[in-house]
Amino acid sequence: METTFAFWVQGISDALQPSNLLFAFLGCVIGTLVGVLPGLGPAAAMAILVPLTYDMGPVPAIVMLSAIYFGTQYGGTITSVLVNVPGESTSVVTCLDGHPMAKSGRGGAALGIAAIGSLFAGLTGTLLLMILAIPLSSLALRFGPVEMFALLVVGLSLVISFRGGSLLAAFAMTLVGLMLGLIGLDPVQGAPRFTFGITSLFDGVQLVTVIMGLFGIGELLLSFEERVPEPITGKINSLLPDRGERKSASLAILRGTCVGFGLGIIPGMAGIVPTFMAYALEKRLAKHPEKFGKGAIEGVATAEASNNAYAQASMVPLLTLGIPGTATLAVMMGAFMINGITPGPFLFVNHPETAWTVIGSFIVANIVLFILNFPLVRVWVNILLIPRRFLQVAILVFCIIGAYTLRNNVLDVLVMILFGVLGYFFKKIDWPAVPLVIALILGPLLERALRQGLELADGDTTVFLTTPTSALLLALAFLIVTFSLFANLKAARAARLLVSHTADKADPTS
Amino acid sequence: MQGFDVPIRKAGMLARVLVASLATALSSAAMAQSDYPNQPIRLIVPFSPGGGTDLGARLLANDLEQVFGVSVVVENLPGAGSQLGLTELANAKPDGYTIGAVNQPALDTIILSPERQATFDIDSFDYIINHVSEPIIIAVRPDSPYETLKDLVAEVAARPGELRVATSGLLTPEHLAQLQLEQVARSRLRIAHFNGAAESMTQFRAGRTDIAFTTASFLEGLKPLAILSRERSNALPDLPTAVEQGFPDLVMVSTRGFAAPAGLPEDVLATLRDAFAQVAQSESHQLKAAESGLSVEIVVGEEYEAFARSNFESARPLVELAQQQRN
Amino acid sequence: MIAFPTDRSSSPSRRLVISKQRAGALLFAALSGFFIFEASFYPYMDWIGPGSGFFAMWVGSLALVAFLALLILDPVPTLPTSDNQENQASARQSRREVVGTIIFLIVAALLLQPFGFILTCGLLIAALLRLYGARLWVALVSGVIAGPAIFFIFLCLHVRLPVGALGI
């Protein structure tokens, strides 16, 4: 244990050298800018910058790349809050409450709590990473396709019981998401499903285009109908939550960190799952759950904390198993390998000093990011001061660039526009878009995990019930659905009673 | 709103711009024939940035720029396991200004799978050079009782439908190698498909699969039994091939090469082949490639064409086998 | 064509929203039906378990049921945050902006590769600004400046936006 501690100290002090700090600052600036420009996905940006870091030497390169990585996360938060365009899939949940907050003039507070939450989650996550990386990796190893399937069923059950208006509409939208997820080559035989001969659809509908369309363009189209009487001022009252919110916001950050980290260590876990689960949890525990989706600061706090905790935790499978959970992490892995760091089970054994330096650089990157961005929140919010029409055109142009540069493919742009129209329509008839997005992500993962589990078990379906973790999780999913069904029936009955009472009151002669 | 003269003046300007651009375009088309290359070259990589193929392509592109004196721009066209990028390459004009990275067996499996509806086939390309070759290696855990490939094959034959293996995807080199093993042992394996090599190797390390089919980069801590190349590898001189252990049908090497759309003028193709050979065989490139973990194996020109075609033919029965099994 | 009721006597905004929801439910019910039809061509079971058609059939069927339920039951949705406009002219204006934006975006997407980024972007920006009420010269100047500027920024970042047939 002493040698590990010595490595920690060495790692952090390496990362803190002035030249490395400079690279960290540079990385944060680049990363934030990249995250703010929807046209430049973090994966592509990192891929381009990676060869540049080639001549720097491993430590500065890793410090800079980590800074860029976290910077892009925060840049995505900025666009989510200010213009409802999620930078990455994990930023979708931030949009839900972040953008309404911006619309009601509390954009500064939203970005502020995002920065605070991210910092807390980042530092806590890195600390946990340092202590638990090695034991966690063996735990992560034991999570196979069978367990993953069960976990995804839990995730889906949470989505279905997500109460945001009509339960039936949420259920229907989940199914739409599942249907969309089925488009493409199937994991069973590799045969195309629902592609109608369009080869660009072989990989399915691209998630980023769906998200940009549903949230970014949909919101934009809707805003044409809102006659904004008062312009959104750049004047920010405070970057901090109000007195009354402080306690609940802090708890939200704490819970978000736990959920984000806990689920983030699972290899191949998509970022949006822990973020959404943290959000759903927070909503369930809140005193005023109806405020969620309309500007509850706890929503932003938990979303940001969990997705930053996830970012730290996802380093466990990356560094110890070589499995990247997202495209950006895959590029990071490539960056590590170019700099002579081969992620895998033997990294901590053969090159412990490098591994700990990498982790030390995360701490530095998180802190630098906060120092850089927290004061800059006022600057960022001024984006809202740009004359509305120019801002809207800019958003549209960048969305088109973002969709196109994903795969240099025009179909992606058209899909994005389609979902823009759908997003607009869904908002008008109050059908929730979030279940669709989550089902779109979870569906294919679920089918694949089921398939893999069956292939390994030679077709024996009982394996999902005989594996303890899996059985437990499936039972949990069942409970979640049943519980929320009862809760909804009760609420419906109560509502009906209320309606009939008021009707009675209104017309005493009946 | 504005006066009528403004739009007319604007139209005149626009017309002038159009004519000028047209003239430039026509003259550059004429120039293209005379002196190759005198325009930027498009290098299509049918995978996302940051992967192995992309890395190798960018390394070569950098050096090629020095040789050609024009910029060589890498264009990532990922999707459908390289089908999208390959389609674009096959449909491009065969003037030498569009070339692309071509991976086998990906190319072969796409062409040979009817449901993929590929719009190209093995004749759609003029082959330039092979850059990287990665043979599949069969390995087991260090504490497992198998010492030779023969032991393993016997075990597979004795226990049909029990031993578990993982692949990095449907019809990837590992999958094809596993089908070969099934054929040789006249038995059946439990084959599970994952997303990428790291995921499939994790299953092995976690004990969920029994035999690892992998490449050299994942061998640490494993006991390799055979390498599925025709000859021993220089990097692993002590690892016997499956062929020398008495299994001539167990050969599986994934290759990464470069090609252009079919129909290139002879001199252009020759120029490309020479330039690529020069760059790929240079010491500095070999050094950089080794550092990045790429196992380079150069096969140039007509030799590569023959090589590619023979790879294609070897893949054919395996793909048919895979499809039979499904039905 | 589905006509939305224009009867103003009973809570106009609520009536309109309900009808739109029914239209949506009908559309998606039809899509689900089509989905089920397509799914019937895919193998239901495999030698090992669910085939490619298994989930497709189930999800499609459940979706059909859900949307038919939405169509028939038509639960009262929560009122949308934006109230209906008093002013008919401004309602027409905003519809024009919505439809115009969508059309311009689609056209831009289709022109992106043949015309190249600079030209397409310039045209799009000019068209959108004009649609949103900017003056003609403002729109054109913005388009002419922004197109090349954005192309250049992304070029510095090593992202190659499409170059069209005219070489720009």
What does this structure look like?
- The complex is a heterotrimer of chains A (510), B (327) and C (168).
- Chain A is mainly alpha-helical.
- Chain A has one domain.
- In chain A, 74% of the residues lie in helices and 1% in strands.
- Chain A has 21 helices and two strands.
- In chain A, a hairpin with a 6-residue loop joins β1 and β2.
- Chain A starts with a helix and ends with a helix.
- The relative contact order of chain A is 0.18.
- Chain B has 327 residues and is of the alpha/beta class.
- Chain B folds into two domains: 168 residues, D-Maltodextrin-Binding Protein, domain 2 (3-Layer(aba) Sandwich); 115 residues, D-Maltodextrin-Binding Protein, domain 2.
- Chain B has ten helices and eleven strands.
- The relative contact order of chain B is 0.16.
- Chain C contains five helices and no strands.
- Chain C starts with 11 loop residues before the first helix and ends in a 12-residue tail after the last helix.
- With 168 residues, chain C is an all-alpha fold.
- Chain C folds into two domains: 62 residues; 69 residues, no CATH class.
- The N terminus of chain C is likely disordered.
- Chains in contact: A-B, A-C, B-C.
- At the A-C interface, α3, α8, α9, α17 and α18 of A face α1, α2, α3, α4 and α5 of C.
